[in-house]
Amino acid sequence: LTVAQVTNDLHLARRRFRALALVELRALVGSNEEFRAEARDLFGFEAEIVAEQVVIDVPSAGAGVWRVEGM
Questions:
Q1: CA dist 42 to 8, 25, 33, 35, Å?
Q2: pLDDT tens track for 43-64
Q3: Ramachandran angles phi, psi of 63, nearest 5°
Q4: Residues 6+ apart with CB under 8 A from 46
Q5: Which residues pair with 47 in a beta bridge?
Q6: Are 48 and 31 in contact (CB under 8 A)?
Q7: Are 56 and 68 in contact (CB under 8 A)?
Q8: Contacts 24+ apart (CB under 8 A), 6-11
Q9: How many degrees, rounded to 5, is the angle at CA 69 between CA 65 and CA 17?
């Protein structure tokens, strides 16, 4: 494996972890406002639920959208 391959794989793994953690976080909190506050405290970026999708804006990694299962 090259250094670039390892770096890219780690980046992808971090993005997937954040997505899964945000979906679980949303299931645990009572409101979208609480979700946004908890996501900001835990991860240091803004996240929200829009049309049953987790939408994040991570300055270092760019924006992303993940489908929220079971909503």
A1: 23, 10, 14, 10
A2: 888 877 665 666 655 555 555 5
A3: -90, 160
A4: 36, 39, 40, 56, 57
A5: 56
A6: no
A7: no
A8: 11/61
A9: 55
DSSP run (H or E) holding 58: strand 53-58
- Residue type (1 letter), 57: D
Q: Which pair of tokens denotes residue 42? A: 């835990």
Would you state the structure tokens that stand for residue 4, as one six-digit string? 């670039």
Whether the model pTM is above 0.85: no
Tokens of 11: 């980046």
Cα separation, 39 vs 32, in Å, equals 10
Q: Are 49 and 41 in contact (CB under 8 A)?
A: no
